[in-house]
Amino acid sequence: MPEEDPRLPEEEIVPPANSHGRQFFKKRKATKIFIGKRTQSNMTADNELEIKEAFQRAQKGHNNKAKLVASLKSRYNKLEDKTPFHEEFIRCLKYAMIVYKREPAVENVIEFAAKFATSFQSPPKPEGEDQQEEQEEEEEEEDEEEDDHPFLSFIFNFLLESHKANSHAVRFRVCQLINKLLGSMSENAQIDDDLFDRIHQAMLIRVTDKFPNVRIQAALAMTRLQQPKDPDCPTINAYMLILENDANAEVRRAVLSCIAMSPRTLPKVLKRTRDVKENVRKLAFQVLADKVHIKALSIAQRVSLLQQGLHDTSEAVRKVVCSRLLPAWLLRLDGNVIDLLHRLDVENCAETAMDTLKAIFESMPAEELLQNREQLDSSKVIQLTL
Fold this sequence. Notes:
Blueprint: E1 25-27, E2 31-33, H1 45-58, H2 65-78, H3 83-97, H4 104-118, H5 131-144, H6 150-162, H7 168-184, H8 193-206, H9 212-221, H10 234-245, H11 249-258, H12 266-271, H13 278-291, H14 299-310, H15 315-332, H16 337-342, H17 350-363, H18 366-370
Antiparallel strand pairs: 1-2
Helix pairs in contact: 1-2, 1-3, 4-7, 6-7, 6-8, 7-9, 9-11, 10-11, 11-13, 13-15, 14-17, 15-17
Protein backbone atom coordinates (compact mmCIF):
# COMPACT_ATOMS: atom_id res chain seq x y z
CA MET A 1 0.00 0.00 0.00
CA PRO A 2 1.23 3.53 -0.64
CA GLU A 3 2.39 5.44 2.41
CA GLU A 4 0.27 8.26 3.71
CA ASP A 5 1.64 11.75 3.87
CA PRO A 6 2.26 13.12 7.36
CA ARG A 7 -0.77 15.13 8.46
CA LEU A 8 -0.69 18.40 10.36
CA PRO A 9 -1.83 20.38 12.19
CA GLU A 10 -5.23 18.78 12.80
CA GLU A 11 -4.09 15.32 13.91
CA GLU A 12 -1.19 13.75 15.73
CA ILE A 13 1.51 12.77 13.30
CA VAL A 14 2.77 9.22 13.46
CA PRO A 15 5.91 8.44 11.43
CA PRO A 16 5.02 6.08 8.57
CA ALA A 17 6.81 2.76 8.26
CA ASN A 18 9.04 2.02 5.30
CA SER A 19 9.27 -1.26 3.45
CA HIS A 20 11.50 -2.71 6.18
CA GLY A 21 8.97 -2.04 8.92
CA ARG A 22 11.03 0.77 10.43
CA GLN A 23 10.04 4.32 11.08
CA PHE A 24 10.57 6.89 8.35
CA PHE A 25 14.16 7.53 9.49
CA LYS A 26 16.81 4.86 9.81
CA LYS A 27 19.46 5.32 12.45
CA ARG A 28 22.82 3.91 11.69
CA LYS A 29 25.90 6.10 11.95
CA ALA A 30 23.62 9.05 11.28
CA THR A 31 19.90 9.53 10.91
CA LYS A 32 18.56 9.39 7.39
CA ILE A 33 15.12 10.64 6.48
CA PHE A 34 13.12 8.24 4.35
CA ILE A 35 11.07 10.25 1.85
CA GLY A 36 8.05 8.13 0.88
CA LYS A 37 6.21 8.00 -2.41
CA ARG A 38 3.40 10.34 -3.32
CA THR A 39 -0.14 9.00 -3.17
CA GLN A 40 -1.22 11.30 -5.99
CA SER A 41 0.80 13.41 -8.34
CA ASN A 42 0.04 16.23 -10.70
CA MET A 43 3.72 16.78 -11.39
CA THR A 44 5.94 15.08 -13.90
CA ALA A 45 8.23 12.33 -12.66
CA ASP A 46 11.18 14.58 -13.44
CA ASN A 47 9.85 17.34 -11.20
CA GLU A 48 9.07 14.92 -8.40
CA LEU A 49 12.55 13.42 -8.55
CA GLU A 50 14.11 16.86 -8.49
CA ILE A 51 12.43 17.86 -5.22
CA LYS A 52 12.80 14.47 -3.56
CA GLU A 53 16.44 14.18 -4.62
CA ALA A 54 17.18 17.69 -3.33
CA PHE A 55 15.79 16.78 0.09
CA GLN A 56 17.72 13.53 0.15
CA ARG A 57 20.97 15.24 -0.74
CA ALA A 58 20.32 18.05 1.73
CA GLN A 59 20.45 15.53 4.58
CA LYS A 60 24.18 15.13 4.05
CA GLY A 61 26.20 17.89 5.66
CA HIS A 62 28.96 17.77 3.04
CA ASN A 63 26.61 18.66 0.19
CA ASN A 64 26.71 22.21 -1.09
CA LYS A 65 23.30 23.57 -0.11
CA ALA A 66 23.78 26.68 -2.23
CA LYS A 67 24.01 24.51 -5.36
CA LEU A 68 20.99 22.48 -4.30
CA VAL A 69 19.02 25.66 -3.75
CA ALA A 70 20.09 27.10 -7.11
CA SER A 71 19.20 23.88 -8.94
CA LEU A 72 15.78 23.57 -7.34
CA LYS A 73 15.06 27.25 -7.79
CA SER A 74 15.88 26.98 -11.49
CA ARG A 75 13.35 24.17 -11.81
CA TYR A 76 10.76 26.15 -9.86
CA ASN A 77 11.14 29.24 -12.03
CA LYS A 78 10.48 27.23 -15.18
CA LEU A 79 7.11 25.98 -13.95
CA GLU A 80 4.00 27.82 -15.04
CA ASP A 81 1.82 26.21 -12.38
CA LYS A 82 3.62 26.40 -9.04
CA THR A 83 0.95 24.61 -7.00
CA PRO A 84 2.14 21.01 -7.57
CA PHE A 85 5.67 22.07 -6.67
CA HIS A 86 4.41 23.68 -3.45
CA GLU A 87 2.53 20.53 -2.49
CA GLU A 88 5.47 18.23 -3.16
CA PHE A 89 7.90 20.49 -1.31
CA ILE A 90 5.67 20.51 1.76
CA ARG A 91 5.15 16.75 1.54
CA CYS A 92 8.90 16.19 1.70
CA LEU A 93 9.38 18.80 4.40
CA LYS A 94 6.80 17.15 6.67
CA TYR A 95 9.01 14.09 7.06
CA ALA A 96 11.59 16.26 8.80
CA MET A 97 9.04 18.24 10.78
CA ILE A 98 7.76 15.22 12.70
CA VAL A 99 11.21 14.47 14.14
CA TYR A 100 11.77 16.11 17.52
CA LYS A 101 15.32 14.91 18.13
CA ARG A 102 18.07 17.22 16.89
CA GLU A 103 19.52 14.75 14.40
CA PRO A 104 22.09 16.17 11.94
CA ALA A 105 20.20 14.93 8.87
CA VAL A 106 16.99 16.58 10.03
CA GLU A 107 18.74 19.82 10.92
CA ASN A 108 20.32 19.88 7.47
CA VAL A 109 16.92 19.50 5.81
CA ILE A 110 15.41 22.29 7.91
CA GLU A 111 18.36 24.53 7.02
CA PHE A 112 17.98 23.70 3.34
CA ALA A 113 14.25 24.43 3.35
CA ALA A 114 14.84 27.82 4.97
CA LYS A 115 17.60 28.71 2.51
CA PHE A 116 15.45 27.73 -0.44
CA ALA A 117 12.45 29.74 0.75
CA THR A 118 14.48 32.88 1.43
CA SER A 119 16.35 32.58 -1.87
CA PHE A 120 13.35 34.21 -3.54
CA GLN A 121 14.03 37.50 -1.79
CA SER A 122 15.02 40.38 -4.01
CA PRO A 123 18.75 41.09 -3.66
CA PRO A 124 19.69 44.28 -1.76
CA LYS A 125 19.85 47.33 -3.99
CA PRO A 126 23.27 48.87 -4.67
CA GLU A 127 24.04 51.95 -2.61
CA GLY A 128 24.68 54.02 -5.74
CA GLU A 129 21.38 53.16 -7.41
CA ASP A 130 19.62 56.10 -8.96
CA GLN A 131 17.26 57.59 -6.36
CA GLN A 132 14.91 58.93 -8.99
CA GLU A 133 14.41 55.45 -10.39
CA GLU A 134 13.68 54.17 -6.90
CA GLN A 135 11.03 56.83 -6.36
CA GLU A 136 9.36 56.05 -9.68
CA GLU A 137 9.19 52.36 -8.88
CA GLU A 138 8.33 52.72 -5.20
CA GLU A 139 4.55 52.78 -5.57
CA GLU A 140 4.58 49.94 -8.07
CA GLU A 141 6.76 47.84 -5.80
CA GLU A 142 4.49 48.47 -2.83
CA ASP A 143 1.48 47.32 -4.84
CA GLU A 144 3.24 44.16 -5.92
CA GLU A 145 5.05 43.52 -2.64
CA GLU A 146 2.68 40.79 -1.52
CA ASP A 147 3.22 38.91 -4.78
CA ASP A 148 6.99 39.34 -4.95
CA HIS A 149 7.77 36.11 -3.12
CA PRO A 150 4.83 33.70 -3.51
CA PHE A 151 6.82 30.69 -2.33
CA LEU A 152 8.03 32.46 0.81
CA SER A 153 4.48 33.57 1.57
CA PHE A 154 3.27 30.03 0.94
CA ILE A 155 5.79 28.58 3.40
CA PHE A 156 4.89 31.12 6.07
CA ASN A 157 1.18 30.39 5.62
CA PHE A 158 1.78 26.65 5.93
CA LEU A 159 3.83 27.09 9.10
CA LEU A 160 1.34 29.45 10.70
CA GLU A 161 -1.47 27.00 9.99
CA SER A 162 0.58 24.26 11.66
CA HIS A 163 1.82 25.93 14.85
CA LYS A 164 -1.04 24.54 16.96
CA ALA A 165 -0.38 20.92 16.00
CA ASN A 166 -0.86 18.31 18.71
CA SER A 167 2.64 17.01 18.05
CA HIS A 168 5.26 18.92 20.03
CA ALA A 169 7.78 17.92 17.35
CA VAL A 170 5.78 19.77 14.72
CA ARG A 171 5.36 22.83 16.95
CA PHE A 172 9.11 22.81 17.57
CA ARG A 173 9.97 22.57 13.87
CA VAL A 174 7.43 25.25 12.95
CA CYS A 175 9.02 27.71 15.37
CA GLN A 176 12.51 26.66 14.29
CA LEU A 177 11.69 27.23 10.62
CA ILE A 178 10.08 30.61 11.28
CA ASN A 179 13.18 31.56 13.26
CA LYS A 180 15.47 30.51 10.41
CA LEU A 181 13.32 32.20 7.76
CA LEU A 182 13.23 35.51 9.57
CA GLY A 183 16.90 35.27 10.50
CA SER A 184 17.92 34.60 6.90
CA MET A 185 16.17 37.65 5.53
CA SER A 186 18.25 40.68 4.63
CA GLU A 187 18.52 43.57 7.06
CA ASN A 188 16.31 45.78 4.90
CA ALA A 189 13.71 43.07 4.27
CA GLN A 190 10.07 44.04 4.62
CA ILE A 191 7.15 41.87 5.66
CA ASP A 192 3.52 42.50 4.88
CA ASP A 193 1.75 43.95 7.93
CA ASP A 194 -0.82 41.19 8.04
CA LEU A 195 1.85 38.47 7.83
CA PHE A 196 3.92 40.27 10.48
CA ASP A 197 0.95 40.30 12.85
CA ARG A 198 0.15 36.65 12.21
CA ILE A 199 3.73 35.57 12.88
CA HIS A 200 3.80 37.74 15.98
CA GLN A 201 0.60 36.32 17.41
CA ALA A 202 1.60 32.72 16.68
CA MET A 203 4.99 33.07 18.36
CA LEU A 204 3.48 34.83 21.37
CA ILE A 205 1.35 31.73 21.82
CA ARG A 206 4.20 29.29 21.30
CA VAL A 207 6.48 31.15 23.70
CA THR A 208 4.16 29.82 26.42
CA ASP A 209 4.29 26.23 25.09
CA LYS A 210 4.71 23.53 27.72
CA PHE A 211 7.82 22.20 25.94
CA PRO A 212 10.96 24.29 26.66
CA ASN A 213 12.52 23.67 23.23
CA VAL A 214 9.42 25.05 21.55
CA ARG A 215 9.54 28.12 23.79
CA ILE A 216 13.21 28.62 22.94
CA GLN A 217 12.64 28.60 19.19
CA ALA A 218 9.58 30.84 19.50
CA ALA A 219 11.56 33.34 21.56
CA LEU A 220 14.40 33.33 19.03
CA ALA A 221 11.93 33.71 16.16
CA MET A 222 10.62 36.96 17.66
CA THR A 223 14.07 38.58 17.73
CA ARG A 224 13.43 40.74 14.66
CA LEU A 225 9.85 41.46 15.67
CA GLN A 226 10.92 43.63 18.60
CA GLN A 227 10.07 47.33 18.64
CA PRO A 228 12.37 48.78 21.36
CA LYS A 229 10.93 52.28 20.96
CA ASP A 230 7.41 51.04 21.60
CA PRO A 231 6.74 51.06 25.37
CA ASP A 232 4.01 48.46 24.86
CA CYS A 233 5.90 46.14 22.50
CA PRO A 234 4.30 42.69 23.01
CA THR A 235 7.54 40.86 22.22
CA ILE A 236 9.60 42.78 24.76
CA ASN A 237 6.83 42.41 27.33
CA ALA A 238 6.88 38.66 26.74
CA TYR A 239 10.68 38.57 26.96
CA MET A 240 10.71 40.37 30.29
CA LEU A 241 8.04 38.04 31.64
CA ILE A 242 10.08 35.02 30.57
CA LEU A 243 13.26 36.33 32.20
CA GLU A 244 11.38 36.72 35.46
CA ASN A 245 9.23 33.61 35.49
CA ASP A 246 10.32 30.84 33.10
CA ALA A 247 11.55 27.89 35.13
CA ASN A 248 13.81 26.60 32.36
CA ALA A 249 17.30 28.10 32.33
CA GLU A 250 17.81 27.49 28.61
CA VAL A 251 14.69 29.47 27.79
CA ARG A 252 15.95 32.36 29.93
CA ARG A 253 19.30 32.14 28.14
CA ALA A 254 17.59 32.23 24.73
CA VAL A 255 15.78 35.43 25.67
CA LEU A 256 18.95 36.98 27.08
CA SER A 257 20.71 36.32 23.78
CA CYS A 258 18.17 38.20 21.69
CA ILE A 259 16.40 40.81 23.84
CA ALA A 260 16.93 44.37 22.64
CA MET A 261 18.66 46.53 25.22
CA SER A 262 16.82 49.63 26.39
CA PRO A 263 16.27 51.50 29.66
CA ARG A 264 13.22 49.29 30.17
CA THR A 265 14.95 45.94 29.60
CA LEU A 266 18.30 46.74 31.24
CA PRO A 267 17.10 46.09 34.84
CA LYS A 268 15.80 42.67 33.79
CA VAL A 269 19.14 41.73 32.26
CA LEU A 270 21.03 43.03 35.30
CA LYS A 271 18.88 40.84 37.51
CA ARG A 272 19.94 37.75 35.55
CA THR A 273 23.53 38.30 36.75
CA ARG A 274 22.14 36.94 40.03
CA ASP A 275 20.32 34.01 38.43
CA VAL A 276 20.44 30.67 40.23
CA LYS A 277 21.96 29.01 37.15
CA GLU A 278 25.62 29.56 36.31
CA ASN A 279 25.10 29.56 32.53
CA VAL A 280 22.44 32.24 32.78
CA ARG A 281 24.65 34.48 34.95
CA LYS A 282 27.55 33.95 32.57
CA LEU A 283 25.51 34.93 29.51
CA ALA A 284 24.05 37.95 31.31
CA PHE A 285 27.55 39.32 31.88
CA GLN A 286 28.45 38.61 28.25
CA VAL A 287 25.38 40.48 27.02
CA LEU A 288 26.19 43.46 29.24
CA ALA A 289 29.76 43.46 27.95
CA ASP A 290 28.70 43.35 24.30
CA LYS A 291 25.58 45.52 24.26
CA VAL A 292 25.70 48.00 27.14
CA HIS A 293 28.03 51.00 27.32
CA ILE A 294 29.55 51.61 30.73
CA LYS A 295 28.10 55.13 30.67
CA ALA A 296 24.60 53.65 30.41
CA LEU A 297 25.05 52.18 33.88
CA SER A 298 24.84 54.09 37.14
CA ILE A 299 27.78 54.01 39.55
CA ALA A 300 25.77 51.75 41.85
CA GLN A 301 25.09 49.34 38.99
CA ARG A 302 28.75 49.23 37.95
CA VAL A 303 29.91 48.57 41.49
CA SER A 304 27.24 45.94 42.04
CA LEU A 305 28.20 44.12 38.84
CA LEU A 306 31.86 44.02 39.82
CA GLN A 307 31.12 42.96 43.38
CA GLN A 308 28.93 40.10 42.20
CA GLY A 309 30.95 39.08 39.18
CA LEU A 310 34.42 39.10 40.70
CA HIS A 311 33.21 37.08 43.70
CA ASP A 312 30.81 34.75 41.92
CA THR A 313 30.89 31.15 43.12
CA SER A 314 31.46 30.03 39.53
CA GLU A 315 34.92 30.31 38.04
CA ALA A 316 33.37 30.54 34.57
CA VAL A 317 31.39 33.62 35.57
CA ARG A 318 34.41 35.26 37.19
CA LYS A 319 36.41 34.57 34.04
CA VAL A 320 33.77 36.27 31.86
CA VAL A 321 33.86 39.37 34.06
CA CYS A 322 37.65 39.55 33.79
CA SER A 323 37.97 38.62 30.12
CA ARG A 324 34.84 40.24 28.65
CA LEU A 325 33.19 42.84 30.87
CA LEU A 326 36.24 44.75 32.14
CA PRO A 327 37.99 44.80 28.73
CA ALA A 328 34.74 46.04 27.13
CA TRP A 329 34.48 48.87 29.65
CA LEU A 330 38.12 49.80 29.16
CA LEU A 331 37.73 49.72 25.38
CA ARG A 332 34.90 52.24 25.60
CA LEU A 333 37.09 54.39 27.84
CA ASP A 334 40.03 54.22 25.41
CA GLY A 335 41.93 51.91 27.73
CA ASN A 336 42.09 54.50 30.51
CA VAL A 337 42.22 52.59 33.81
CA ILE A 338 42.15 55.83 35.81
CA ASP A 339 38.97 56.87 34.03
CA LEU A 340 37.45 53.52 34.92
CA LEU A 341 38.27 54.06 38.60
CA HIS A 342 36.67 57.51 38.43
CA ARG A 343 33.47 55.81 37.32
CA LEU A 344 33.40 53.63 40.42
CA ASP A 345 32.63 54.67 43.99
CA VAL A 346 36.25 54.30 45.07
CA GLU A 347 35.86 56.08 48.42
CA ASN A 348 33.00 53.93 49.66
CA CYS A 349 33.88 50.76 47.76
CA ALA A 350 37.65 50.66 48.03
CA GLU A 351 37.72 46.88 48.21
CA THR A 352 35.81 46.55 44.94
CA ALA A 353 38.17 49.04 43.30
CA MET A 354 41.17 47.02 44.48
CA ASP A 355 39.64 43.78 43.21
CA THR A 356 38.97 45.47 39.88
CA LEU A 357 42.56 46.66 39.54
CA LYS A 358 43.85 43.24 40.47
CA ALA A 359 41.65 41.62 37.82
CA ILE A 360 42.83 44.12 35.20
CA PHE A 361 46.50 43.66 36.03
CA GLU A 362 46.18 39.87 35.94
CA SER A 363 44.31 39.74 32.65
CA MET A 364 46.03 42.51 30.66
CA PRO A 365 49.60 42.23 29.35
CA ALA A 366 52.09 44.65 30.90
CA GLU A 367 52.83 46.15 27.48
CA GLU A 368 49.20 47.09 27.02
CA LEU A 369 49.04 48.70 30.44
CA LEU A 370 52.24 50.67 29.78
CA GLN A 371 50.77 52.05 26.56
CA ASN A 372 48.48 54.16 28.71
CA ARG A 373 51.10 55.41 31.15
CA GLU A 374 50.77 58.96 29.77
CA GLN A 375 47.36 59.06 31.45
CA LEU A 376 49.03 58.95 34.86
CA ASP A 377 50.01 62.03 36.84
CA SER A 378 53.82 61.91 36.79
CA SER A 379 54.00 63.72 40.13
CA LYS A 380 52.22 60.79 41.76
CA VAL A 381 54.12 57.98 40.08
CA ILE A 382 56.80 56.14 42.01
CA GLN A 383 59.61 55.17 39.70
CA LEU A 384 61.36 51.93 40.48
CA THR A 385 64.99 51.32 39.69
CA LEU A 386 66.15 47.78 39.21
